[in-house]
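Technical appendix A lists one of the benchmark inputs used to test multi-chain prediction within the project. The record comprises four sequence entries:
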Amino acid sequence: MTLDIVGDRWTLVILRDLHLGKRRFSQFLDSPERIATNVLSDRLAQMEREGLVAKSLYQDRPKRYEYRLSEKGEALLPVLQAMSRWANRFVPDSWTTPPEFLNRKTP
Amino acid sequence: MTLDIVGDRWTLVILRDLHLGKRRFSQFLDSPERIATNVLSDRLAQMEREGLVAKSLYQDRPKRYEYRLSEKGEALLPVLQAMSRWANRFVPDSWTTPPEFLNRKTP
DNA sequence: CGGTATCCTATGGGATACTG
DNA sequence: CAGTATCCCATAGGATACCG
């Protein structure tokens, strides 16, 4: 199961984006990795089932949700930070790693 | 590129195994995730091209190699440790994490 | 905007056979 | 044992259209 999460590129991208503060569907779509809408939809649902992500209604009609990390999802931050540090050292252009991300305190 | 490495389940499995000290082709095959031979072969070649893994001849005829992590590959250990810590906390059965792995010192 | 549905193809990867 | 090669199918996921 851990492998299904960390070993999936789109899940990683979504996790990173959520840590960066993105929450709405279209905001994920703006990320440089260009995830397809159906894939995004699919992964968000999966991640919700896995308890990594929770969504909350922020508008009634039509229904609109925003997504945030659960504690379980938050706890993956160290994995992403480790990735970022590695990427900064070995392939600086390969992974979006703003400083405020690296400097985030692990809960 | 970082995503192609960390976001690929088989690459992660191989990295973990190499950190655990496995080196020979068939030893990888014994891992619980049951990688297929063609996939293993493919990933090892990929990882070699990416500079994560180096192989050295340990027997001449027929040619036999063993694999080890380069410095660049070694440097991914923190990612795997972060995964392991997360897995131990949230899904204890999902990822092979012997204590000596977690306790390894990052170079 | 915030999604869901459908279509369609590339390819990942399992099974298996084969070679040195 | 240590791989390489082939076959073959499922499915991931890109493109696109569509709906509330």
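Helices of chain B lie at 2-6, 9-20, 25-29, 37-49, 71-74, 77-90, 99-102. The radius of gyration of chain B is 14 Å. Comparable benchmark entries are summarised in Table A2.
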